[in-house]
Write a structure and sequence with these properties.
The chain has 162 residues and is α/β, with parallel strands linked by helices. A hairpin with a 4-residue loop joins strand 3 and strand 4. Helix 1 crosses helix 4.
Length: 162
């Protein structure tokens, strides 16, 4: 079973920026990982006019595209989150961006300038990150302490390579 952690915060808090830095840190440590982005909107990953776009537009239920360096499978239907996670293999760790209500352990972010508090209660998380001091019963990291968060996550899931 691949460990899954969810990074949760309100829009504009810096989830993507933090996750970019965390991916770099974990990759430097030899960790293979997947990131799953929750999108509350109807996203498009294909460009109008391209062959795969044309196949989808024509009615294909699934369109796949592959090259020598990457591949993508686009399903033109709702795919439950658990099914998406279940299809991921050959990685050590899965991190999601979003999924506040999911069952996976959460790391909550807060940035004072947004005027928002944590998107979920800190006590429901395994860790929190903030640009201000946090009174919490769980480990708290600054938004800049990517290395500390990486150590914590790898220890938590048993992947810490000393």
């Amino acid at each position: 079973m691949i460990p899954v952690y969810s990074v949760v915060a309100f829009s504009g808090t810096g989830k993507t920026t933090m996750l970019e830095q965390l991916v770099v840190e974990l990759k430097a440590r030899g960790i293979a990982l997947a990131v799953v982005k929750h999108d509350a909107h109807d996203f498009e990953i294909d460009r109008e006019g391209k062959d795969s776009w044309r196949f989808s537009r024509a009615g294909a239920d699934v369109v796949a595209i592959a090259s020598g360096t990457k591949a993508a499978i686009m399903e033109n239907r709702f795919v439950p989150f658990e099914e998406v996670i279940g299809r991921i293999s050959v990685v050590d760790l899965i991190i999601t961006e979003g999924y506040k209500t999911g069952a996976y352990p959460k790391i909550a972010l807060r940035r004072e300038a947004t005027g928002n508090d944590f998107a979920v209660a800190p006590e429901s998380c395994i860790a929190v990150m903030s640009d201000t001091a946090v009174e919490a019963a769980v480990p708290a990291f600054t938004l800049e302490d990517i290395s500390g968060l990486a150590d914590f996550l790898l220890r938590d899931c048993g992947l810490l390579k000393e």
